[in-house]
Amino acid sequence: MIEVTKSRAIALGYFDGVHLGHRALMQKAVERAKQIGGTSAVFTFDVHPDSVVMGRQVPLLTANAYRREEIKQLGGVDEVIFGHFDERMQHMDWRDFIHKLLIGQFHAGWIISGRNNRFGYKGQGNAEGMAVECEKAGIGYDCIEDVKVDGIVVSSTYIRQLIAQGDMEGAAKFLGHPYTVTGIVEHGRRVGTSVLKVPTVNLRLPSEMALPPYGVYATRVLVDGKSVGAVSTYTFENVVDNHTIHATFARKHTPTPSTPTVEIPDDDALGLNTTDHFAYIVGYGNGEVRPQNNITRAEVATIFFRLLTDDVRDENLTKTNRYSDVAATSWYNTAVSTLSSMGIITGYPDGTFRPNAAITRAEFAAIAARFDNDGDKTAAKFSDIATHWAKDEISIAYNNGWITGYPDGTFGPQRDITRAETMTLVNRVLNRQPETEDDLLPNMTVWTDNANPKAWYYLAVQEATNSHYYEFKTNSQYEKWTELRETRDWKALEQ
Questions:
Q1: pLDDT tens digits, one per residue of 472-493
Q2: 414: pLDDT confidence band, cut at 50, 70 and 90?
Q3: What is the pLDDT of residues 148-196, one digit of tens each?
């Protein structure tokens, strides 16, 4: 039970990771608390709202058990108030959130929020509405403008993307401090000592944590709150009691696996460039993009080749393949050769690749799924894949939310896939999804055969064919374009 003695200056947000933007909010709360002679506070939720609204755990930058400590330590506020986000809170009117909850229950005398903060039912509350209601209630209100680093808005979503790619230096820059994880050391099977002849630590990490990809990272380690420096091994004298390890990460070297993986549930593909939204389809010289045409196996290989991160592409690049029908001079040779060497694409038993054949739904699902080695193979309940060669791959793609079936319960594995369907599915893999036409820009390229915003594939095609900068909408999986950018010279990569 929180005992109220003074008015509060309350900063609003989820405060995951306590990045530079969060600090700006809390600094203002501390300042306003002094001004009104009250206490500074953060109002946040016990669970991430998206985990309730979207029905899946959002990877967190700070484990739930350590959020209060981290917010107070890095923000300097007096209190951290956790509201319970459930269905009732999800459906609360935004005005009630201000007047009944923040003012009525928690005695807000000043409220501080970000420019893009959304609250109340369906996010109908915004900064403008907050300002009006605070004025009506006779309390202060500050809207904090976006904090940017290198022209990019600081956000927890963007930092998660950096971590998923192993860019720990970039994550630290946007956080304002090194990224850390904390866990409990547990007894293991003594494999390190008995088999590897190297002492190892079994660290149980909270399931909700966002973790970097495979590599060597740890540069500073705290054991039971005491720094032991930059170590990769540590010997415990007391192995009876539980011990806590707090590790700070910075990338030293990240080996490229033979087959890239996709980080789930954040939907950020490791080995695929999920950060830079370059156009990966350039259209035709006559102004068409031909969304309803079938797409070939060579074209799909080229798309995924373009979408590889530069590091993965450079480390696996080859122009040599084993297929009898893919010549060294073919425009798709580099893409096919590289993805084949990575095990992402395969040919046929007769030694051909059949580059000009239309790709099937099963073949596409298999390519996408091979970026997720540890994907959920729980059988998708399609009536027509029980004995199909791509049953596991289809199930992985389905369980990741990349593909769907038909109303009759079938998947249609042998059906050819169109260019529009391909762009839709690729965008799902990359989490490149504008929500409405308003999330695009008026000066973008619009194709003569994709000029109808009501077409089911309109947004997907525009996303795939326009290079742009973007930001994620508050508390949403959807993006909003902020500026167009130059398309990469794909021909230079593919030569």
A1: 999 888 999 999 999 899 988 8
A2: confident
A3: 887 788 888 778 767 766 677 788 888 998 887 776 666 655 555 554 4
CB atoms within 10 A of CB 338: 24
C-alpha span between 119 and 464 (Å, rounded): 31
Backbone phi, then psi, for 64, in 5-degree steps? -55, -40
- Sheet containing strand 226-227, edge to edge, reads 202-204, 179-186, 243-253, 216-223, 226-227
Which carries the bigger pLDDT value, residue 287 or residue 260?
287
Q: Looking at the DSSP assignment, which residues form a beta bridge with residue 179?
A: 249
Global pTM?
A: 0.48
Which residue ranges make up each domain of the chain?
Answer: 8-146, 153-253, 262-359+416-494
Instruction: Please say if the pLDDT value at position 217 is more than 90.
Output: no
Measuring CA to CA, which residue among 164, 158, 433 is closest to residue 272? 164
Query: Between 316 and 207, where is the model more confident?
Result: 316
The pLDDT value recorded for residue 252 is 41
Position 262 scores a pLDDT of 32
SS (H, E, C) 305-329: HHHECHHHHHHHCCCCCCCCCCCCC
Check whether 134 has a pLDDT greater than 50.
yes
Q: Which CATH superfamily, name and number, covers 8-146?
A: HUPs (3.40.50.620)
Q: Distance between CA 425 and CA 460 in Å, rounded?
A: 9
Q: Which residue did the predictor score with more confidence, 149 or 39?
A: 39
Return the pLDDT at 3: 46
- Please give the Cα distance from 416 to 360 (Å, whole number): 4
